[in-house]
Amino acid sequence: MNKTKKILVLFTLFIVPLLFYIFLSKGIYKYANLPILTENVVDISDGETFKEHFTVVCFLGDDLSTTKGQLFNLNETIYKRYNKSLYFQTIVVLPPGNEDEIEQIKKRLGTYADASKWKFVVSTKEEIVSIFNSLDTPYMLNDNFGSNYAFIIDRELRLRGRKDDEDTTDGKLYGYDMNSVAILKNKMRDDIGIIYYQLKKSKEKEKRRKREI
């Protein structure tokens, strides 16, 4: 009995704190950084900009009747959670010819939440290709100049994503499939959360630095 008690005491004093430290270390690592996958993403040239924002960007193409469902998935899982966050915006890039339907979609989005950070950018097909290709991903635009994927672009025009994703062959996750609510909810939402965790820590560090001066 005494021997058992000694083992229990030793376990409590040494093993439990060690396990707790490992747990914390993994948690800190998780929130330490969201990898940069591509630098120098081409910015939008007309009206809106990626610069100085944390942007969720998607390419819906010129057949909104088949892709607007992706938009509402994004609205429910991502936009509603982060639309009041600092620097956040969502940009939809699409070819000309959808202006009437865009207005209808804006009105519908406005019934769910403040839609002011939804930005619809009508661009030439050449510019859409240029922006999309600059992301340097393994994905391709479809025949309608659209994509199923949404992307995270930071304030320095860098594509952010994962390098250790368990569901990709090389571990890299460049974009998030908008057809999958599970991916948007469990991956993209968490990854944007990491960016805002970094931003919070950076601001706290800057405040401490200013106090020390």
**Corresponding CATH architecture:** 3-Layer(aba) Sandwich
Helix content: 40-55%
Mean pLDDT: 87
Number of domains: 1
The topology string of helices and strands comes to: HEEHEHEHEEEH
Class computed from helices, strands and strand pairing: alpha/beta
Give me the number of helical elements: 5
CATH-level-4 superfamily name: Glutaredoxin
Largest sheet: 7 strands, mixed
**Overall strand count:** 7
Distance between the termini: 59 Å
- The poorly predicted ranges are 19-29
CATH structural class: Alpha Beta
Strand content: 15-25%
**Cα-based radius of gyration, to the nearest Å:** 22 Å
CATH fold label: Glutaredoxin
* Net shape: globular
Keywords:
Glutaredoxin, alpha/beta, single chain, 16% strand, 213 residues
Outline the structure in words.
With 213 residues, this protein is of the alpha/beta class. The protein has helices at residues 2-30, 64-82, 99-110, 125-134, 181-212; strands spanning 36-38, 54-60, 88-94, 118-122, 146-153, 159-160, 176-177. Strands 1, 2, 3, 4, 5, 6 and 7 form a seven-stranded mixed β-sheet that branches. Helix 2 (64-82) runs parallel beside helix 5 (181-212). The chain is globular, with a radius of gyration of 22 Å.
